[in-house]
Design brief:
single chain; 309 residues; alpha/beta; Rossmann fold; six-stranded mixed beta sheet; two-stranded antiparallel ribbon; 9 helices
Amino acid sequence: MSVQTSAPTFGPAAPEQITPERILHRLDWQVIRRLDGLFQGDYRTLFYGHGLDFADLREYQPQDDIRHIDWNVTARMNSPYVRNFVEEREITAWFLLDLSASMGFGPADRPKEIVLVDFVTTLARLLTRNGNRVGAILYNNRIERTIPPRSGRNQVLRLTRDMLRESNPPPGTSTDLKVLLHSGFNTLKRRSLVILVSDFISEPGWEHSLALLNQRHELLAIRLLDPQEVELPDAGLIVVEDAETGEHLYVDTSNPQFRRNFLAAAQRREAALSASLKRAGADLHTVSTADDLTQAIVRMAQLRKRRRR
């Protein structure tokens, strides 16, 4: 269950107010220029280690990444061997995007789906400016579209346009991230940077698929969150709606015990999600609807830098 607030729609009237060109222009001025100043144009901290080609094999050393162990050679040699990779000049990045109904939750002017569009457009713009290629798989309770990787500004605009397109998920279905992750695993044949963006409100059992994807690729897992999904305000009697099923329930948020129970349940979900990502061997970065996007990306880069030490 989640408290469903009204969110802007991208229907017939939207193109006059929200277009890919206007979004990219706004982000270029408000976010990307600030990031250029903070990073001095050097985004290796954020994007390091994803464009890799196989070079050779050597014996395993204690500091090596276990994901690079070649198990077939290890079995033949009776000693662990790892694959050496060399960094490519260009990066291929794939966005795996969860556009399911729960992404419409959040403030009326900035629900999670708007944050997703801004975040993905920003990263795609940063990547393609230097000749890197970006592609995407869009999911809304089924695979909606696959965008083959290309470089250039037009590719960023196409990606943004497809994120804004209205979709109609199959009736009676719920979000299952396994479908998105499985599609990514089967589609991406060459080692790439994979950026999974979701709120992770899903049917259980996706951890194994995520672990397989993480073994083959450089993975960034981005969880989008609204503060009210964790801690309800004292807003009196409100309607709680499950964004995935449409089920409604009246609750009294002025009841302190109800708010404490809601917070405790949210904390249990948080712990379970962290444990699931840890089992899959993937790092999780959280971006809130209340975050300044520039600072959220800087924070993510700093965390990745610390984890690589």
